[in-house]
Amino acid sequence: MKLVFFGAxxxxxxxxxxxxxxxxxxxxxxxxxxxxxxxxxxxxxPDKDFLDAVxxxxxxxxxxxxxxxxVMRMRQDKRTKPLLLIGPEGFEASFKRLYDTLYKxxxxxxxxxxxxxxxxxxxxxxxxxxxxxxxxASHLVGTQFFVPTAAIRxxxxxSSFCYSSDTTYTDxxxxxxxxxxxxxxxxxxxxxAEYHKRMPAHSSPTDxxxxxxxxxxxxxxxxxxxxxxxxxxxxxxxxxxxxxxxxTPSEGDSFDI
Length: 257
Ligand SMILES: [Zn+2]
Known about the structure:
This protein is an alpha/beta fold. It has helices at about 40-45, 60-65, 65-75, 90-100, 170-175, 195-200, 205-215, 230-240, and strands spanning about 1-5, 20-25, 30, 55, 85-90, 115-120, 125, 130-135, 150-155, 160-165, 180-185, 220-225, 245, 255. The chain has a single domain (about 1-255), classed as Metallo-beta-lactamase, Chain A. It is about 25% helix and about 25% strand. The relative contact order is 0.15. The chain binds zinc ion. Zinc ion binds near residues 58, 60, 139 and 166.
């Protein structure tokens, strides 16, 4: 399985793409599609039939706002092949509302079947030979900002990766990622940042390193590094917990998983 990054940046970075990855195996699965991803995606994969499925981890703009644009272009390009859209509880209604707000009435005349699948922690699903499993992430739990957020693990032909999405530290993701070849984990602010006390939204690089160590993964990829933290500092902090390979993927980077 090959994993291609369209971005790994935080939501409001000056130039880095939103966190978005393409898992390529027997089928092609896109993981998250934020507001600045569609043009990056079309430049690399213009074929209207290329994607088999899209997983949306949660309903925040840097994870889902680009998806209506992808779907709209598939319609314009006269796609007929079905598309599977996967997301957490409430995803189908939220997506339909967003699409209808941006392009009123067009979802009903897409011209190709769109299947929605809502998942929750413990759910399992197959896309071709890719076996997908999910855990509930911990993103803004107990606050007025809470949205259901899912972490995903993909296993295919003996290889595997796990994507935490936006989350504070949770054992659930450490369990989900057990033995994976690669873990892609939220690393927003340093462990010492006041932010973590104010907002139960994101992890520190230390948290990411702890999860990687517990799960025994081969490689850790840090994403969502805040623009004021910087990659070098995040790598150093995560490295204090995890002594395997640690990377900070850039747009266009690909990994054989
Ligand atoms: Zn989020």
